[in-house]
Amino acid sequence: MATPESLSDPGPEDMELNQRLTYEPAQKFFHWAMAIVVLSAIALGLWSSFLVPGDPLRKALLDLHKSFGFTAAALILPRIICRLMSRASVGQPEPNRLFRLAAHGTHFGLYALMILMPVTGYLFSAAGGYSLPWFGLFHWPRLVDESKAMSLAGKWLHDKGAWLIYAAVSAHILAVIWHSVFRRDDVLWRMLPDWRSDDETPD
């Protein structure tokens, strides 16, 4: 029979289980860093879309939008490498096959879009002769010749991809809300940073 001491003081087995049920620190870092970068780029892009071309504020917002986009491009490869080198799964598998497939599809789509959006945005700006700034510190090299056709193709793909990433991010957020509010499981908790010190114990 469990004693109060055994309930309050986690043993080695409990600590090992807790480690298995949470994501690794590197995974958490890349997840939240990419979340901040992507959501910032989305917000800036949406804001600038309501301003008229030639407005100085619109250009400033687009320069920031591009900077966050380039940051996402720089983060995606190490994030994928980190994901491949980390544990294959965390926690209990989703018993519902449809929900499991939807979760995998959303994650795959997000990874694909985090590659597609910076690439198409770069082609749109580089081939169109537009600036390629990174937070005012430097400009990225222009690796393609100026081409109206290539710029228009990049713009078209970037615009269409924007709607897809709106949908994918919304689905991801709704899934987190569904898990936290309706299923009341620990999906969100497993991705949150662990602020507790080693000598702290659960209540």
From TrEMBL:
Its cofactor is heme b. This is Cytochrome b. Its main location: membrane. Pfam families: Ni_hydr_CYTB. Keywords: Cell membrane, Electron transport, Heme, Iron, Membrane, Metal-binding, Transmembrane, Transmembrane helix, Transport. It is a multi-pass membrane protein. It comes from Paraburkholderia strydomiana. Belongs to the cytochrome b561 family. Residues 23-193 form the Cytochrome b561 bacterial/Ni-hydrogenase domain. It is found in: Cell membrane.
